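Hypothesis: this fold can be encoded by more than one sequence.
Test: take the C-alpha cells below, design a sequence, compare later.
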C-alpha cells in the first residue's frame, strides 16, 4: 500500500511538471495564483508547505489539468502536437490550452458513448508512396480526399463542418498571434485535434485546415524531425501545401470557373482575385494552382505576386471579408455535447462552466440560447 509520503511526493512532482508544461515561470504562476510571493509556490513544489484543496483547484485550472492528473498514481504522458510557425515562438501555454480542450472534448464523447470516426480517413500510406514523385502523390491524394468526403465545388465553405461532424475532428480556434499558423495532433485516446489561428484571414484559415489535414492523414508516414516546425519549407510541408491546393481547388471546378470569367482565354489580374473570392482561397494559392495545372507559367505567377498594384487591388477588393464573422473559439459540436451531458446529469454545472469558460450564473441563459431546455427533452410517444 502506498504511503502518504509517497503520495505527497508524487503530488509535488506533478505540480512542478504541470507548471513547466504549461509554460509558466514560478514567478508568473505565483502571481496568477494570487500568492504574495513566489516563495509560497516554491515551498509547495518542494513539499515544505502543504497545499490546501482550494489552492490545488486553482493550480489545476491555471495549468489546464484535471484534479486526477495530480492525484492519480499513474498518468499517461501528454501527446506531442505538430506545430506550424514561421518564427521560433514559445507555444507551451497555448499547447496546454489545446490539449486541455481535447481532453474535455474526449471526455464528453466518452460520457455519451460516441464512436470515433477519424481513422476512416487514415489510409495505409507509407514512405514508399511518396518516394518516386511525392508532389504528384500529394496532388492526387488531395483530389481523392475531396471526392471521398464529398466536399463539392467550393470545398472551403464546408470543410470545417465535414471534418467536425463526419469525421469528428476536434477543431479549436485561438488567437495565436503573428508567426503561428496552428497545430495538429493524432492520439488514440484524444482523437484528432487541429488548432487554427482565429486571427488569420478566412482564406488563410481554410488553407491551414487543409494543410493540417494532410499531416493527420500521413501521421505515421513522416517523422516530426522530417516535417519540422514550419519555420522551413521541408518536403513534407510542401507536400501538405500541394495537397491543400488540390483539395480546396478541385481541377474540374476551378477550370469551369476560370472559363466563365476569363475573356478570350486571357487571364486578367481581376480574374485571379475573383477566383480567390469565389473559392475562399488566397490569390497566391490560386496562382500556384494554375501553375501546377499548366495554365500559367511559374514566371507569370511570380510576376503577378511581385506586383504591388496587384497586392493593393487584392487587399481592397477583399477588405470587407476581413471583417466577416469569425468562427467561435469552441466548435458547435463541442458546445452541444457539453449541453447534452449537463442536461442528462453526466457532468456537474461546475464542470460545464469550466469547459465552456463561462460563469456559473450564466449557465441557464447559455442552455436556453442553445435550445437545451427541459421541454425539448420531452419524449415523443410512439404507437
Amino acid at each position: 500500500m502506498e504511503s502518504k509520503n509517497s503520495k505527497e511526493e508524487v503530488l509535488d512532482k506533478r505540480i512542478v511538471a504541470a507548471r513547466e508544461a504549461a509554460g509558466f515561470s514560478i514567478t508568473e504562476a505565483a502571481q496568477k495564483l494570487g500568492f504574495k510571493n513566489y516563495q509560497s509556490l516554491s515551498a509547495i513544489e518542494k513539499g515544505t508547505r502543504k497545499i490546501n484543496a482550494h489552492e490545488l483547484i486553482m493550480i489545476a485550472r491555471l495549468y489546464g489539468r484535471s484534479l486526477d492528473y495530480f492525484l492519480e498514481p499513474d498518468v499517461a504522458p501528454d501527446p506531442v502536437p505538430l506545430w506550424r510557425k514561421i518564427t521560433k515562438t514559445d507555444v507551451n501555454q497555448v499547447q496546454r490550452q489545446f490539449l486541455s480542450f481535447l481532453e474535455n472534448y474526449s471526455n464528453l464523447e466518452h460520457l455519451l458513448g460516441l464512436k470515433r470516426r477519424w481513422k476512416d480517413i487514415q489510409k495505409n500510406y507509407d514512405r514508399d508512396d511518396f518516394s518516386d514523385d511525392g508532389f504528384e502523390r500529394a496532388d492526387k491524394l488531395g483530389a481523392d480526399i475531396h471526392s471521398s468526403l464529398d466536399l463539392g465545388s467550393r470545398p472551403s465553405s464546408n470543410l470545417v463542418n465535414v471534418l467536425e461532424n463526419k469525421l469528428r475532428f476536434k477543431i479549436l480556434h485561438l488567437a495565436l498571434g503573428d508567426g503561428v499558423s496552428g497545430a495538429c495532433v493524432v492520439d488514440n485516446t484524444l482523437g484528432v485535434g487541429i488548432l487554427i489561428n482565429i486571427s488569420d484571414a478566412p482564406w488563410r484559415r481554410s488553407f491551414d485546415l487543409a494543410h493540417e489535414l494532410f499531416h493527420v492523414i500521413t501521421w505515421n508516414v513522416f517523422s516530426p524531425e522530417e516535417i519540422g516546425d514550419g519555420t522551413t519549407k521541408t518536403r513534407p510541408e510542401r507536400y501538405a501545401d500541394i495537397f491543400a491546393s488540390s483539395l480546396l481547388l478541385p481541377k474540374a471546378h476551378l477550370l469551369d470557373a476560370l472559363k466563365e470569367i476569363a475573356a478570350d482565354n486571357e487571364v486578367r489580374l481581376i480574374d485571379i482575385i475573383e477566383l480567390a473570392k469565389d473559392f475562399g482561397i488566397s490569390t497566391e494559392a490560386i496562382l500556384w494552382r494554375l501553375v501546377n495545372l499548366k495554365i500559367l507559367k511559374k514566371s507569370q505567377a511570380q510576376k503577378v505576386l511581385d506586383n504591388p498594384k496587384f497586392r493593393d487591388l487584392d487587399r481592397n477588393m477583399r477588405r470587407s471579408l476581413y471583417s466577416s464573422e469569425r468562427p467561435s473559439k469552441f466548435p458547435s459540436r463541442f458546445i452541444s455535447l457539453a449541453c447534452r451531458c449537463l442536461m442528462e446529469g453526466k457532468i456537474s454545472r461546475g464542470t460545464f462552466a469550466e469547459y465552456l469558460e463561462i460563469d456559473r450564473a450564466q449557465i441557464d441563459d447559455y442552455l436556453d440560447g442553445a435550445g437545451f431546455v427541459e421541454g425539448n427533452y420531452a419524449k415523443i410517444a410512439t404507437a
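The two ends are 57 Å apart (CA to CA). The mean pLDDT is 90.
Hypothesis status: open.
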